[in-house]
Design brief:
Layout: E1 2-4, E2 9-10, E3 13-14, E4 19-25, E5 35-42, H1 47-57, H2 67-72, E6 75-77, E7 82-84, E8 87-91, E9 96-101, E10 105-110, E11 112-113, E12 120-121, E13 124-125, E14 136-145, E15 151-160, E16 165-166, E17 169-170
Parallel strand pairs: 5-6, 5-7
Antiparallel strand pairs: 1-4, 2-3, 4-5, 8-9, 9-10, 10-14, 11-12, 13-14, 14-15, 16-17
Length: 181
Amino acid sequence: MAMEITEGHFDYVRLDGLRVAGVYRWPGPVHEGNGTWLSIMDRRASQEQVDALFTILGGGEQEATTGFAIYGSTIAHEPDPVFADIEFEFDLDKRHGRFVVDNVLEADIAPIRNPVTGEEHYIAIRPHRGFEFREGEMASASFWSRGELEQKHEGRFAVLTFASYGPHGIIPGESLPHRRM
């Protein structure tokens, strides 16, 4: 997981331009809990910004039924966070993305392919009651991570999205612009 905060704040602390990433794994279904989450914080963040980001990502400022709070409640183990440069590329229209934290993780995201023609296949998903996002572009990810959460996967489900979050979850009207391809 990785995100870049284009514009945001927590109380009076500005978070514009900061990036966060993470590696996570659960031993079974997410809702059964006992997950492990390795937080990766932007090296550029001040201590106030780091504190704000940990509060947000842990669900500490959201209602219990919102995305960060739901996922946060399933985490049982958190290794020490990594503070690093996070390389982040995001092109929603082309369904491409990439994020890298040297010697920790790397993910490449590309459009899914039509199984018959091999051509790029664009599919939007719009969960009616989604708590993570209200509209996203389906994609395919290949990624690896090292350390306590060592893993390597190819061709896994990914989603690219733009979302705005607040204490009550997703802020209505702040999702992806509707477009036809």
